[in-house]
Amino acid sequence: MQELTHYIRQELGSLYTHTELFALIRIILEEVTGIDNTGIISDKFNHLSSSELSKIKDIIGRLKKSEPIQYVLGKTEFYGLNFKVSPDVLIPRPETEELVEWILSEKAAGPVSILDIGTGSGCIAVTLAKKLPQAEVNAWDISEGALDIARENARINNVTVNFSNQDVLSINEDNEIISEGGKYDVIISNPPYVMDSEKKSMDDNVLNYEPHVALFVEDDNPLLFYDKISTIALDLLNDNGKLYFEINRDKGDDILHLLKSKGYDQIELRRDISGNFRMIKGVRTVSGSKQTYNHE
């Protein structure tokens, strides 16, 4: 055990912090041996087979190329649930868990209709379907590869989500989706919001592996998706329906004013656990209601 952990530290020590390395060692050994962390700490395995050693070396080789451990293993955890991931989808982030927690804390009694725009791995849609069994959950994405992963995640977690291939930027007032109108009580989106100019400050494990189509927007139009989604949401939300976004921490005020300009009410900009403004909510109310705005 000590010899093995020394080997992993030697191979990866220059690439990860002490805390990250400790977590990686636990994850690698659990994955390869099938023994949980308690068993690993108590040294319940005496030796590794040649195939297990080979698998560890393969994992280490991929990590040394900055590939995220979630892609190496093909899975991750989100909100206590297990999710499959691949380079077709973003790796779910803790701040997205906070967005889900906010939505769940405000859930309406009884059945609700929910739409997740840009679902990716399906982490938001699947989690809401799991936690709100009476809800009808729908999810869109432009990527068929992402939708394949999301459908598998719905199966893994034994929930029903209605997935659809949609390019939200191509939807206009003549689209059948819009003409139906007033379908949803809640719309959520974690759209691309990282500006191209921010690439230079990002780590290789993000830049070289995660899907750029789900991450980046051009510097000259950073609110492209927020503008489009908040516009069509006015037609898709029922009266008093709620629109939630995950946002770039530097664009909170801009997005607040965008929602204000479109007539959303009860707008609330919320900080994440790190103190950054990373999520926002607006309510589609009947015309004539007084707008209110809040920075929590």
Structure overview:
- Substrate binds at residues 190-193.
- The chain is of the alpha/beta class.
- The chain has two domains: 2-65, no CATH class; 88-295, Vaccinia Virus protein VP39 (Rossmann fold, 3-Layer(aba) Sandwich), CATH 3.40.50.
- It is 40% helix and 21% strand.
- Strands 5-4-3-6-9-11-10-12 form an eight-stranded mixed β-sheet, sandwiched between helices. Strands 1-2 form a two-stranded antiparallel sheet.
- Strand 7, helix 10 (204-207) and strand 8 form a beta-alpha-beta unit.
- Helix 2 (18-33) packs antiparallel against helix 4 (50-64) and helix 6 runs parallel beside helix 7.
- The longest helix is centred in the N-terminal third of the chain and has 16 residues, at 18-33.
- It starts with a helix and ends with a strand.
Keywords:
single chain; 296 residues; alpha/beta; Rossmann fold; 2 domains; eight-stranded mixed sheet; two-stranded antiparallel ribbon; 12 helices; 12 strands; 40% helix; elongated
Number of helices: 12
Shape: elongated
Strand content: 15-25%
Count up the domains.
2
As a percent range, the share of helical residues equals 25-40%
Biggest sheet overview: 8 strands, mixed
Q: Largest beta sheet: what is the strand line-up?
A: 5-4-3-6-9-11-10-12
N-to-C span: 48 Å
The oligomerization state is: single chain
Rounded radius of gyration (Å) = 21 Å
Along the chain, the helix and strand elements come as HHHHHEEHEHEHEHEEHEHEHEEE
CATH arch. level architecture of the largest domain: 3-Layer(aba) Sandwich
**pLDDT average, as an integer?**
91
Structural class: alpha/beta
Fourth-level CATH superfamily of the largest domain: Vaccinia Virus protein VP39
Counting DSSP E segments of at least 2 residues, the number of strands comes to 12
CATH class annotation of the largest domain: Alpha Beta
Residue runs with pLDDT of under 50 for 5 or more positions: none
Q: How is the CATH topology of the largest domain named? A: Rossmann fold
